[in-house]
Amino acid sequence: MDNAEKAVRYAREHSADFVSDLKDLARIPSVSFPGFDRKNVESSAEAVAALLKKSGLENVEILSLPGAHPYVYGDWLHAAGAPTILLYAHHDVQPPGREELWRSPPFEPTERGGRLYGRGTADDKAGAVVHASAVASCLETLGRLPVNVKIIIEGEEEIGSLHLEEFLRRFRSKLSADVMILTDTGNFDVGVPSVTTALRGMASLDVTVRTADHPLHSGMWGGPLPDPVQALAKMIASVTDAKGDIVVPGILSRVRKPSAAERKSLKALRYSEAKFREQSGILRRTRILGKGGEILERIWYRPSFSVNAIQASSRKDCANIVNEAAWCHMGVRLAGGMNPQDVLKRLKAHLLKRAPWGASVQFSNETASPAWNTDPEGPAFVAAAEALEKGYGHPAAFIGCGGSIPFVGPFAAALGGAPALLIGVEDPYTNPHSENESLHLGDFSNAIVSAIYLYEALSRAPLKK
Ligand SMILES: [Zn+2]
Question: Per the CATH hierarchy, to which homologous superfamily does domain 3-199+371-460 belong?
Fold first, then answer.
């Protein structure tokens, strides 16, 4: 039995222990959003640090920057002459959402039907545990790793990696590596391992529309008094056309067309409308915008607009009034080629132009990060395809992702253009960022095994410059 097989056997035999490590992390409500207790993110960083130490990683430390949620670092650097790989995941999580919609409590990880339910079980505490477990399996059975490993587990990914630039400036030399592996994305389907080669970017903002300084009786004042809710609704409605495509002038002019390789993958994946219906849970009579392969193209390679939350009064306080203000948070998922600042500028100008009745419009809370893509060529991608196929017993797919990870672009650039392998454990049923988030436990085990094969394959790959 060769070395990798020994470690793989250990990983398969200990998969229940690794699930238990994951449950321990997922019990900590490490929500990084403002308004949630920061101490939970700190406890989560400590628990991650303890797990990395237990796995045999060395020099484990919590890296702090003023005002930032803590990052955790660890390494193992005794494979002289072999490449150095940098592993990335994040330990902060999204808020739980509406507690009453969870079938089991969000921070009590619960197994049902071969999946582990709970906030962060997939996004992205699974990412941290996959690598800790793969490292532990190698060190326990072989006493060594085939490559040098550095691992960084971030604490503020879900709020847009706000201190990333500063972090990279401060710790760049510590992070230097020949290839980076980010475990925070999804597989094309359960049992279909995938390498993500394109991410959308994001431009988002709060919009507040005001027409008065206090709410007024809708009978005594309604008619001449403009309703800010209607004003905001008209503004929102003007952003897209009947097909759901963005019509803000100039916003689509720089969208990158899918490359030949991307087109080939889109075709090979044979995605269907039926699959989209099944995976998304869209209502039976609700129309899908796009057909077949075009659906994936819309998600991965074109921009989309959504209104994430909207508020004026509330169900509880609903009364016969005209509100004084209406608020919403909206975002554009950006395709390759789009400049996030330019998109924000054009979107704001468009909304201002469409604001009726001289209503006051204020913008705040803006975020902007570009899309990212890579050409899946070279030895790192060959190694990844080989390792994933061995770990899952299914050929790897090369896919795009409609989500955004602002970290990837700047990080790859800081590492001098080192290849970035985005390999995750989520799947279309994971429901990240929503209620009843879950992880497929079979694929979790396959992901750990693939990681072991990947370290081995990268040790043989001609990566060093
Ligand atoms: Zn994530």
Answer: Zn peptidases (3.40.630.10)
